[in-house]
Amino acid sequence: MFKTAIEVESFIYSSYVNKYKMIPGGSDKFARKPQFTRQLLDGLGSPDKLQKNILITGSKGKGSLSILLAKILEGEGLESRFVY
Predict the structure, then answer these.
(1) What's the rounded Cα separation, in Å, for the pair 68 and 63?
(2) How far apart are CA 41 and CA 20, in angstroms?
(3) For the chain, how long is the longest CA-to-CA vector?
(4) What is the pLDDT, as a whole number, of residue 10?
(5) Distance from C-alpha of 55 to C-alpha of 24, rounded to nearest angstrom
(6) Which of 51, 62, 65, 69 is the most exposed place for a label (fewest CB within 10 A)?
(7) What's the pLDDT tens digit per position in 5-29?
(8) Which value, to the nearest 10 degrees, does the dihedral of the CA atoms of residues 39, 43, 48, 54 take?
């Protein structure tokens, strides 16, 4: 469906409601694929390959876990940054 990183970025940041007609079969299962993220990052020059990242997801405890993990990393002499 997507041919360029710009198309992927545009799809990601556009309103779901406005793009609903573009979703085959009315399901966004096709869009939840790491290949699309990789295509976008590659189009941006692969900035993630120069970084080590930890992604914390879920509905409870992200803040507490983030603070705890940052303190552990700092205790080991590593730099930590929060990105929201």
Answers:
(1) 9
(2) 24
(3) 50
(4) 74
(5) 29
(6) 51
(7) 777 777 776 655 566 666 666 666 6
(8) -40
C-alpha dist (Å) from residue 9 to 5, 38, 42, 63: 6, 11, 12, 27
Q: Tell me, what amino acid is at 32? A: R
**Tokens 């205790």 map to which residue?**
75
- Give percent of the chain with pLDDT exceeding 90: 0
DSSP string, 1-60: ---SHHHHHHHHHS-HHHHGGGSGGG--GGG--HHHHHHHHHHTT-GGGG-------SSS
Place of tokens 């992200």: 62
CA dihedral 56, 60, 63, 68 (to 10 degrees): -80
